[in-house]
């Protein structure tokens, strides 16, 4: 049985002009204009942003072969000058990088959502925090309050706690564990699944068909994964 979820260790705060390396661990990059806008947002803040050589590679629906994408992640993790890792886009494919994978010991911020849930959950499973936050292809569409919250968090400034009004009454508190429901469902029962005991599960999905959400949550209940979850946001 997995131990209860505990607060993860935070990487050191970012500070311009730190080096941030880009990885494209999932689907083929199609939103090039949005991608470039995202890079400029980080550069305008004073950061050095470095792209991998094969950032625009294609292998079917993936952004290059598994080895190419895994090498991007490995090089970013091992680069002593790199302080953070920016994920380009979601789609599918990041979980494929984690077969026979061991995270290097260096703590670095990893930022993304959607398919990046696999990488973030893998880090959480070993007690390291990432950021379930904007991808390079989506950050330009974020409201100002969201960008400020992101930069405050990774740069070491305090942020206000998230609060919500429950549907069923009562109050709870717990460790927030964000996820894409589809990706997280396919991680259940794998070595990438962190402990779910005592967490508030924050699901990002907003346009999924109701029957698909029903099907996935039924899988969670029947597998016993929901037993230790304190709440869903």
Description:
By secondary structure, the chain is of the alpha/beta class. It folds into two domains: about 10-160, Rossmann fold; about 170-230, 3-Layer(bba) Sandwich (Glucose Oxidase, domain 1), CATH 3.50.30. The protein contains six helices and eight strands. It has helices at about 30-45, 65-80, 115-125, 145-155, 180-185, 210-225, and strands spanning about 20-25, 50, 80-85, 110, 130, 175-180, 200-205, 230. Strands 2-1-3-4-5 form a five-stranded parallel sheet, with helices on both faces. It is globular. It starts with 18 loop residues before the first strand and ends with a strand. The relative contact order is 0.16.
Spell out the helices and strands N to C: EHEHEEHEHEHEHE
Q: What is the rounded distance between the termini? A: 25 Å
Q: What is the SS-derived class?
A: alpha/beta
Could you name the CATH topology of the largest domain?
Answer: Rossmann fold
Main sheet, how many strands, which sense, barrel? 5 strands, parallel
> Whole-number average pLDDT?
92
Instruction: Characterize the overall form.
Output: globular
Overall tally of structural domains: 2
CATH class of the largest domain: Alpha Beta
Task: Name the helicity range.
Answer: 25-40%
Strand content: 5-15%
CATH architecture level-2 label of the largest domain: 3-Layer(aba) Sandwich
Give the CATH superfamily of the largest domain. Murein tetrapeptidase LD-carboxypeptidase, N-terminal domain
User: Number of DSSP strands?
Assistant: 8
Nearest-angstrom radius of gyration? 17 Å
- Strand arrangement, largest sheet? 2-1-3-4-5
How many helical elements? 6
């Amino acid at each position: 049985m997995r131990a209860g979820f505990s607060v993860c260790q935070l990487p050191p705060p970012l500070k311009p002009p730190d080096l941030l390396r880009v990885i494209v661990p999932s689907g083929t990059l199609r939103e090039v204009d949005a991608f470039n806008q995202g890079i400029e947002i980080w550069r305008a803040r004073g950061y050095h942003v470095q792209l991998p050589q094969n950032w625009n590679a294609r292998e079917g629906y993936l952004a290059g072969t598994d080895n190419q994408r895994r090498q991007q992640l490995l090089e970013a993790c091992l680069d002593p000058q790199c302080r953070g890792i920016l994920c380009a886009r979601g789609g599918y494919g990041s979980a494929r990088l984690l077969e026979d994978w061991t995270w290097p010991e260096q703590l670095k911020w990893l930022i993304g959502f959607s398919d990046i849930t696999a990488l973030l959950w893998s880090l959480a499973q070993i007690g390291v925090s990432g950021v379930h936050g904007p991808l390079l292809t989506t950050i330009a569409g974020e409201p100002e309050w969201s960008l400020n919250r992101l930069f405050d968090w990774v740069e070491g400034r305090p942020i206000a706690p998230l609060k919500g009004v429950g549907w069923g009454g009562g109050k709870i508190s717990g460790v927030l564990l964000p996820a894409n429901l589809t990706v997280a469902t396919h991680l259940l029962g794998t070595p990438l699944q962190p402990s779910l005991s005592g967490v508030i599960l924050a699901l990002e999905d907003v346009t999924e068909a109701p029957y698909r959400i029903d099907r996935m949550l039924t899988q969670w209940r029947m597998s016993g994964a929901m037993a230790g979850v304190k709440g869903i946001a």
